Amino acid sequence: GMRDFLAAPAFWRIASASTLSLAAQVGFLMHQLPALEAGLGLSGAALAVSLTAGSAVAGRFVLGGLSHRMPLPILASGCYLVQGAGLVLLLLGQGAPALYAGAVLAGLSVGCIVMLPPLLLSQAFGANGYGTAYGLTNAIMFLGASTATAAVGALYDISGDFQMPFALLALMHLAAVAVIMWRRRPAV
User: Fold this and answer.
1) What is the pTM of this model?
2) How far is CA 73 from CA 85, 103, 120, 123, in A?
3) For residue 80, which of 38, 63, 167, 178 sits 20 to 30 Å off, Cα-Cα?
4) Is 53 exposed, middle or buried (0-12, 13-18, 19+ CB in 10 A)?
5) Buried (b) or exposed (e) across 14-31, using 16+ Cβ within 10 A?
6) pLDDT band at 4, cuts 50/70/90?
7) Can you spell out the DSSP letters for 123-135?
């Protein structure tokens, strides 16, 4: 039952990594337009949002093609790192080409970060446990995502720009990599 999942380290590893990555993604997407408006103007920032959405479609096709060819935790780590790299480029990039490239790079994993939890959970728990594991994971993920959106806004209010919030979001992706790749070593 539900207690079995809550006691399983694999459940918490997947739920935690998925929550960190989704929270970072939603925090970014909710604030992307105002964050880029200063450097690109409103119409340029709107174009960057469109580029993010378009690259998200391409990223889903890539994930679909790779999901049966490589271990899912490594694929998830790659997605988290790609989006984190896009955030770093948006954070440090100077000029429109760098900001557009950051938007595209961050967008490549947008659809993937939503598709990965079901893949990871079905692999870890099989068809019989999938429904419960996915329901619990979704509850945790969406609580994290809603919290991150508010936290980015609060950090913006405190700091006056998006540097600190976007740096935190990139670090959340790094933390997600560490969590999904963590394996407990057997006792000797």
Assistant:
1) 0.92
2) 18, 24, 8, 10
3) 38
4) middle
5) bbbbbbbbbbbbbbbbbb
6) confident
7) HHHHHHHHHHHHH
Which of 27, 16, 22, 15 lies closest to 151 in space, CA to CA? Answer: 27
| Residue closest to 80 by CA, chosen among 183, 173, 178 | 173
Calculate the CA 185 to chain-centre distance.
Answer: 27
- pLDDT above 80 (res 188): no
Between CA 161 and CA 129 the distance in angstroms is: 44
Torsion angle in degrees (nearest 10) through CA of 31, 32, 36, 38: -20
- Asked whether 75 and 161 are in contact (CB, 8 A), the reply is no
Mean pLDDT of 84-90: 97
Which residue has tokens 């337009």?
33
Instruction: Measure Cα distances from 164 to 20, 88, 147, 148, 157 in Å.
Output: 17, 11, 16, 13, 11
Rounded Cα distance between 183 and 188, Å, is 15
- Tell me the three-class secondary structure of 52-104, residue by residue: HHHHHHHHHHHHHHHCCCCCHHHHHHHHHHHHHHHHHHHHHCCCHHHHHHHHH
Which residue type is seen at 9? Answer: P
